[in-house]
Every structure is written in C-alpha cells, then in structure tokens.
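Why this split exists: single-chain examples teach little about how molecules sit against one another. For that reason, every record in the complexes split bundles all components of an assembly together and asks for one structure covering all of them. Below is a record exactly as it appears in the raw files.
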Amino acid sequence: MKDPKTDYLTCPIRHVIGKFGDKWSLLVLYSLHTSESGVLRFNELRKHMNDCSQKMLSATLKNLERLSLIHREVYPVVPPKVEYSLTQTGLSLMPSITSLIEWAQKHFKEVIPKDVIID
Amino acid sequence: MKDPKTDYLTCPIRHVIGKFGDKWSLLVLYSLHTSESGVLRFNELRKHMNDCSQKMLSATLKNLERLSLIHREVYPVVPPKVEYSLTQTGLSLMPSITSLIEWAQKHFKEVIPKDVIID
DNA sequence: TATGGTAGTTACCAAAAAGTAGGAATTGAG
DNA sequence: CTCAATTCCTACTTTTTGGTAACTACCATA
C-alpha cells in the first residue's frame, strides 16, 4: 500500500517532470547553454523565447534559481542589470537535455504531429 | 519578426515538452522499458503508477500511441485484454530518457525540494 | 518636469489539465 | 438472468497554468 505522496518523493521521473517539465524551463537552460558567453540578461532571454511573457520568464527564472540550476547575478546600476548563467549543477544536466533535443530533431520529422492545426 | 506559431513548429524543445512533457508519459515509457517482457497491460501499468487515474492513463496511452511511441495490441477475448509495448521509435527515445532519469537520481539529492511540504 | 530604459511585480481573467464518479461493452460461468 | 473482469469513456468539478495590462523602482538625461 504505497502512499502517493511518498511515491512522488521517491520517483526521479516525477521529480524531473514536476520541477522543470514546464513550458519554458528547458528553453531557458538551452538558451543559456548555447549562448556564446554563457550569460544572458532578462530581455536577451526574452528574445530567445520570443513568445514568453515577462511574468512567465520571471517565474521560470525564479524557479530555476531555487533549484540551483541557474545563477542570478545582480549589478547595482541604473538602469538595472541582471545576468543569468548556468550553475555547475545546471551544466551537468545539459548533456541529457541536448540528447533529448537531438532525438526530437531526428525523429519528429517521422512522427505525424496531428495536434498541429494549420489554419 | 518571428511568428510565435511558426517558432513553435520549428523548436524541438517545445516539441518534446509539448508532446510528452506531461505528468505521466515518461513514466509509461519507463515502465514499459523496464518491464521484463517489454509488454504491460492497462492495469499493470496502473500499478506501476499508483496514483494515476484511469482517465489520465487512458489519455496518456492514446497520446503516446498517436505519436507512434507505443504499440497497442488488442486481443478480442473476454474479458478484454490489451497489451502495450514500445515501438522502435519509442525504444530509440529511451537512452535520452534514462539519461535524464539518472541525472535526477544523482543530483536531486543535492537540490533542496522547497516545494515539498511535509505535513 | 517629463522621458527612457531595465527588470521585474501584481491583479485579473481565460484556458488547459487533471481528479471523481459513474456508465458502457463484452460474454462465459453460475 | 445476473455477475464478474477488463478496458475504457463521459460529464462534472476543481486545480493549475499561463496570458494581458498596468504598475513599481531606480536614476540619468533632455
């Protein structure tokens, strides 16, 4: 008789999905990883994810920082300047993520995306 | 000036997240992959994911079948018997997924899961 | 005084995801 | 005729997610 809550706590898959399986987290990590300097500012990130709202980007960054996957460096200047970068932990995650992305690039040409409505 | 819709269609990350970044898909794939025979029935899968409702499991399986990641074999017997297994495409995805899972197993001990409330 | 630029936050609202409870279909066994 | 077993489906409700628009704060510059 497993307790769902306990089960959740011990299931690595649900940890992964639950923590950064949302709409924007992987895109943030990927953007940081592929940027030349490895560092991006708030509005630079927004340009990389061109239809992400300020609110969602802000929430996503806050979450990733909480998980120690990204680092947030604030420069006390005017106008404000904040730089985001991957932490060591975040960096260690990237091979797995790029593996997933490469798979998608190879195989989703084969898979019929029936859920995409062309209007 | 990128069109968000077009952008969505060409972004592999959003493909991945959008198609099987939901709460249960990875768990289904993983369960099938780690089962001895490589084949599981509906209620066997439910036992592997002990707090997934019938509705959600059913919807998840239908989605994965639509994406050609799993195969659904129906035996016309009474009571009904349906077996699910990975397709070749599904199987080709597993290294990337297990990579992610292994990362989670290693690193989420380090990460403080502040969103988990112990009551 | 007014404007601009950066990095957000907040309130409000709509849409999507997911849980619950019940029904449906099948047909051999009793 | 009824029940049981298995695999779902449907209607209903709740929860979560995400979008929009407006707002803050800072100070330098015009």
